[in-house]
Design a protein that fits this description.
Keywords: Coiled coil, Phosphoprotein. InterPro entries: CheY-like_superfamily, HATPase_C_sf, HATPase_dom, His_kinase_dom, HisK_dim/P_dom, HisK_dim/P_sf, Sig_transdc_His_kin-like_C, Sig_transdc_resp-reg_receiver. The chain contains 10 helices and 12 strands. It is an alpha/beta fold.
């Protein structure tokens, strides 16, 4: 047997063991016990043992105590101070059998103490036990390091998500401030102008200089200003209502939902909005299709999508068809859709339509938050996604891609 090598490398089934003893007869005896199951290497001095262990750390060391130069105790201490070998178990194999010697050996960092002459069965058992413990500890350490890495990555992602949410919140707040400043400014200007006119008319009346024609002009102007005040205040109120919808807790718990009657109920509740203009509503859903989700959130989303279609899809005076549908998409996905046969998306709007406050009908009082609210609810509260696009045959298709069972932590 050559120093630093082990026989039968191709047949190694156990751990790499380093035997350290200045007596080659002892090395041969230990090797004969272990080499059928383990890769065995050896050193005949403490210095050589440290060199071999540093170059290629073993899984276990069998170490004699009484050696010239560095004795076993010194070798054990040095192994335990080297990070590369600190966790390598050391078993003393020695003729020193007093309790004091055994205690001292364990204090230096050894895990076990076997006295000579040794029993082959005892050596095999001790080696197997400490190899098993070491591998279990290494496995636990590796798992802990893996979990720590996962925690660090999860923490990084949460921090990034928080930064993105704060950026989105700042954008939302800035948008609300910009949007609401316009009607407030108009209302303040109108109120100030009306106040000045009232003061002027009061002075004319007090001086007995008010003529009928002036009064009629004032009343007409006051009526226009009052209408402008009413419409601008209503717009400000609509902006606040939509903004509240972004952060609203729609409440409710997950429930099993039979989708066809649920969709029929939603469309029926919106009848006052689609029937008077002459629009038609249809439900396209298998009778047995079900999902587990939050009905309050689903209802809020579908109502918003139907209102959006009624508001944007059809030019004034034209009626159309809006279809609310549901279909299974594999064993664990549901597709909910709201389709219309209207004008489709305007050119250049597809990439911006989900942005907060983006609207093509600002002049009619549209705030541009409805689809952004739908997008946020679909992802944050239902664990799905939302898309909207023009249909090839005309009209618009809004689609919710949702899990058949909304995750319980949402």
């Amino acid at each position: 047997m050559d120093q630093g090598t082990g026989p039968g490398d191709d047949a190694v089934s156990g751990g790499h063991i380093l035997i350290v003893d200045d007596d080659t007869a002892n090395i041969r005896a230990l090797a004969s016990v272990l080499e059928d199951r383990h890769e065995v290497r050896f050193a005949t001095s403490g210095r050589r043992a440290l060199e071999l262990a540093s170059a290629d750390p073993p899984e276990l060391v069998l170490l004699d105590v009484m050696m010239p130069g560095l004795d076993g105790y010194a070798v054990c201490r040095l192994l335990k101070t080297d990070p590369a070998t600190a966790d390598v178990p050391v078993i003393f194999i020695t003729s020193l059998s007093s309790p004091e010697e055994e205690a001292f050996g364990l204090e230096t960092g050894a895990v076990d103490y076997v006295t000579k002459p040794f029993s082959p069965a005892i050596v095999r058992a001790r080696v197997a036990t400490h190899l098993s413990l070491r591998r279990a500890n290494r496995s636990l350490k590796d798992e802990n390091e893996h979990l720590e890495a996962l925690v660090r990555e999860r923490t990084r992602k949460l921090a990034q998500a928080q930064r993105e949410k704060m950026a989105a919140l700042r954008q939302m707040v800035a948008g609300v401030a910009h949007e609401i400043n316009t009607p407030i400014g108009v209302a303040l200007g109108s109120a100030s102008h009306l106040g000045d006119r009232v003061a002027a008319m009061t002075d004319r009346l007090a001086a007995n200089q008010l003529r009928r024609a002036e009064l009629e002009r004032f009343l007409a102007s006051a009526g226009e200003l009052a209408a402008l005040l009413s419409s601008t205040i209503a717009r400000a109120g609509e902006i606040v209502r939509c903004f509240k919808g972004v952060a609203a807790d729609h409440g409710g718990l997950r429930q099993a939902i039979a989708l066809k009657p649920f969709l029929e109920q939603v469309t029926e509740s919106l009848r006052p909005q689609w029937e008077p203009p002459g629009h038609r509503m249809a439900v396209d859903c298998p009778a047995d299709l079900r999902m587990v989700s939050n009905p309050a959130i689903l209802s809020a989303i579908l109502e918003q999508l139907v209102r959006n279609a009624l508001e944007h899809a059809f030019p004034a005076g034209r009626s159309g068809l809006v279809t609310v549908g549901a279909a299974a998409s594999g064993p664990d996905k549901i597709l909910l859709s709201v389709a219309d046969d209207g004008a489709g998306l305007a050119d250049g709007t597809a990439g911006r339509i989900l942005e907060p406050f983006f609207t093509t009908r600002r002049g009619t009082g549209s705030v541009g938050l409805g689809l952004n609210i739908v997008d946020n609810l679909a992802s944050d509260r239902l664990g799905g996604s939302f898309t909207i696009a023009s249909r090839s045959g005309g009209g618009t298709l809004a689609t919710l891609h949702l899990p058949a069972r909304t995750p319980p932590d949402l």
